[in-house]
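Re: the 281-residue chain
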Amino acid sequence: MTENDPLHRIAAALERLAPAEPAKPDFNQASAFIWQSNGSLQPVKAVNRVELGLLKGIERTKDILIENTERFANGFSANNALLWGARGMGKSSLVKAAHHFVDKNSDCALKLIEIHREDIESLPQLMGFVRTSPDYRFIVFCDDLSFDGDDTSYKSLKAALDGGIEGRPENMLFYATSNRRHLLPRDMMENERSTAINPAEAVQEKVSLSDRFGLWLGFHNCNQDEFLEMVEGYCQHYKLKIAKRDWQPQAIEWAVTRGSRSGRVAWQFVQDLAGRLGENI
């Protein structure tokens, strides 16, 4: 085939149009990365995280996740983790804080990779990068993981976590947060039950996704004392010049107007308080 041959020219044109293979990432660039939809990893130089000590009201949950992460970082058996429950109670903050704490206090190079919910179907490709990088250990993290309607990408996640010929790489754990314990809405399960030949089997097939997570860590709404403890922790950490007797009634009023008590609401109050005090935190 000569260069002027039509088939040669077509083949050359297709080669130019074909997307280039993504380069193997340099994991020394950062401790955290974001998985991109084009199959590349973007290093995150400064992770948006909260100090572990500022996460109040979840002490037992915090200890369990840190212990699981430490075992994994040290090369021992550990479980995938699903952090589920009340919004704003520190689920994603705990994952990022636990990674930072363990990475800082262990000899292992522990990397955190965030994958967006809409990119779950590309998880097998990401696992390929992980599998060929045995010098590192990875926590792959998906925040606010849930599935709706006719979305079938949950099947990709099920297969990636435990199924398939290769299985999950031994140097990878999967952590996810969700407001739902079973990741799928009730109406989605009820629809399966009403249309399936064997309703029980159809529902079990969907519920089995959460069974891929060995750790289920529940987060629940905090009471007023825990909420005020969160606010006090932030005030002390950022050295806000205001007495507790002055900010406490304001914090209670803030929570009442929001109709909610949580770590997120406490942080939002402290941000407002710092601004009124002429501080930047």
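The chain is about 45% helix and 15% strand.
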